[in-house]
Design brief:
Length: 72
């Protein structure tokens, strides 16, 4: 998956109409809540075989942090 494809997928996972980038601060998105975290967990598991827990997201501040976790 390219970085551009990752952004498109994250846009869908977050179900946001806001334009996001790797610099997007997650806490600034109104959509970033426990449901969005669970959707992100499923996306990483399904798309990359990476298991995460809710606690992993306390240290993730930006979309880039999620991409790094995914190996993008």
């Amino acid at each position: 998956m390219t970085r551009e494809e990752f952004i498109v997928e994250m846009q869908d996972v977050l179900q946001t109409e806001h334009e996001i980038s790797f610099e997007t601060v997650l806490s600034e998105l109104p959509e970033w809540d426990s449901l969005a975290i669970m959707s992100t967990m499923a996306f990483l598991d399904r798309g990359f075989g990476i298991k995460t827990s809710m606690s992993d997201y306390t240290s993730m501040n930006t979309v880039e942090d999620i991409a790094v976790k995914a190996g993008i």
